[in-house]
Amino acid sequence: MTVKKLVGKLHLWLGLASGLLVFVVAITGCILAFEQEIKSIVRPFQYVEPVAGGMILPPSRLQAIAEKQVPGKPAKGVNYGALGHSVNVPFYGANPDYYFQVYLNPYTGEVLKVVDEETDFFHFILHGHYYLWLPEEIGQPVVAYGTLVFTMMLITGMVLWWPKKWSRSNRDKSFKVKWKAQWRRVNYDLHNVPGFYALFISLVLAITGMIFGIQWLSKSIYWTTSGGKNMPDYQLPLSDSTQTRRYANPTDRLWQQFYKNKTETASLYISCPERASESISVSINHRPGTYYKTDYYTFDQYTLKALTGEGPYFGEYETAGFGDKLRRMNYDIHVGAILSLPGKILAFCASVICASLPVTGFIIWWGRRKKKVLKSQRRVAKTQAV
């Protein structure tokens, strides 16, 4: 058996084993690509009319108003959007799972909408994309290692696509779909040609996706890109609960410190500590619509002393090392948001092609299998006739 035939067998069996998973993950990825754009239309309560010189309410006031809308559950924080956006206060927890967001007018505190995100369409699609709607401890490794199999398929597919000779006819076969041919040939071309054009973006989507679910790969990439640094587990530093509280509303004081220096296009999030040992987190996103260009700060809730932590999600973006910046970018690269709308369009198109590959590949395999069965039946018929 030649190397190319061996690669073909590997490509076939990997495809049959992972085809349904790849189809589901790719289709849900297509739907999620424009989640923010769609929500900006169907959720008008995300926006408010800016008030020139209007006073923005502090987090303690907005937290108190929001907690009346979700009785018995503590607010996790207060998220101030860019100018012209409402404030949203998230509530989430497990056993049982719940996730609410309360949208408020930042000037008046008026409740604009209470959203149960557990029943949201995109939340349902996200669970399919991450876990195949299975329990997280089962679904996440299945999706992650299924994506690893898909990555191997992309590489073996490239080997099979590569022409033996770069003649004009071979180039036409490799780079063009022969639309006027019989449907089986068109299907074959639709498997090979778009698959080649989307190869690089598909590999990027697959690798950035695996970073969320395969720890050894995630840590290996971080070690390589950070110059040999080991990535620590994410852990917020704790407040010193033996200290006397110096300020009645520490979150308000921190908010005043940061909000006055925030640009109109940036968003600001401040956490609401629930436990005595919990610290206060403040994050300023300088490019809403993405997540990577965010500065992270942590403070003791009693003294407001600045606390430090290790890993990519601490400190300011501009002072972070290459490996930390790349890790912060991972999600935005995965969804294409790193390149704004053109990047999302590229990610969407690549996801559509990825979803089509198991379908066209299965049709190719089924057609060849049927052809072999017919040939076998004809041989038996000839033998019996003799």
Give the topology, please.
Layout: H1 3-33, H2 35-42, H3 59-69, E1 77-80, E2 87-93, E3 98-104, E4 111-116, H4 121-131, H5 136-161, H6 168-175, H7 183-197, H8 199-213, H9 215-225, H10 250-259, E5 267-271, E6 280-285, E7 294-299, E8 306-307, H11 322-335, H12 340-385
Antiparallel strand pairs: 1-2, 1-5, 2-3, 3-4, 5-6, 6-7, 7-8
Helix pairs in contact: 1-4, 1-5, 1-12, 5-8, 7-12, 8-9, 8-11, 8-12, 9-11
Pfam families: PepSY_TM
Keywords: Membrane, Transmembrane, Transmembrane helix
Protein name: PepSY domain-containing protein
Describe the overall structure:
- The protein is of the alpha+beta class and 386 residues long.
- It has a domain at 1-48 and 121-233 and 338-386.
- It is built from twelve helices and eight strands.
- The chain has helices at 3-33, 35-42, 59-69, 121-131, 136-161, 168-175, 183-197, 199-213, 215-225, 250-259, 322-335, 340-385, and strands spanning 77-80, 87-93, 98-104, 111-116, 267-271, 280-285, 294-299, 306-307.
- Strands 4-3-2-1-5-6-7-8 form an eight-stranded antiparallel beta sheet, with helices on one face.
**Largest β-sheet summary:** 8 strands, antiparallel
The backbone outline, from C-alpha atoms, is elongated
User: How far is it from the N-terminal to the C-terminal residue, by CA?
Assistant: 33 Å
Note the total helix count: 12
Tell me the β content: 5-15%
> What would the average pLDDT be, to the nearest integer?
92
Name the structural class: alpha+beta
Runs in which pLDDT lies below 50 for 5 or more consecutive residues are none
Q: Count the strands?
A: 8
- What is the helix/strand order? HHHEEEEHHHHHHHEEEEHH
Walk across the major sheet and give the strand order: 4-3-2-1-5-6-7-8
Radius of gyration: 26 Å
Protein name: PepSY domain-containing protein
InterPro entries: PepSY-ass_TM
Keywords: Membrane, Transmembrane, Transmembrane helix
